[in-house]
Design goal:
Blueprint lengths: L1 H17 L3 E7 L4 E6 L4 E4 L12 H5 L2 E2 L5 E4 L4 E4 H5 L6 H14 L3 H12 L17
Antiparallel strand pairs: 1-2, 2-3, 4-5, 5-6
């Protein structure tokens, strides 16, 4: 067990040496963005609406931000929302399921010429077919 613990600690030390960590985090009311200052001097900023668990949050709830001791975690205690800094740097602001739902919703709102034409043609044919409950056939022996 001690070997696994030492291996994990060594891996964490290497990651911390190779990657930037969060050294400060704040909600900038003027910009309407979460701003995270990194150990390499860069800031990353994003609007809370694009991050799972932060969408629709009040400025007061966004004001309290905690950084994990490793510098790889950012926690919003009033919202019980957590983010992993390496994932944030890759643009991942939520779970795969949450991101997929956001992408699907955006695709549904898309207005392309092809979509407009398809919708008109579908409308001329009577629109989307009604759902019909099918009776199950049962076989008796």
């Amino acid at each position: 067990m001690a070997d696994a613990f030492e291996i994990a600690n060594a891996r964490a030390r290497k990651r911390k040496a190779d990657a930037p960590t969060a050294i400060a985090a704040r909600y900038d009311v003027r910009l309407g963005k979460i701003v995270i200052t990194l150990s390499n001097g860069l800031d990353i900023a994003f609007p809370p609406e694009v991050a799972q668990g932060l969408e629709g949050a009040s400025a007061a709830a966004l004001k309290t931000i905690e950084i994990s001791p490793s510098g790889f975690g950012v926690h919003f205690p009033k919202l019980d929302a957590d983010f992993y800094l390496p994932a944030l740097l890759e643009g991942v602001l939520g779970s795969r399921k949450w991101i997929a739902s956001r992408l699907g919703a955006a695709g549904g709102r898309a207005k392309t010429k092809a979509k407009v034409v398809a919708a008109r043609q579908n409308g001329r044919l009577g629109g989307r077919p009604k759902k019909v409950a099918h009776a199950r056939k049962t076989e008796h022996a």
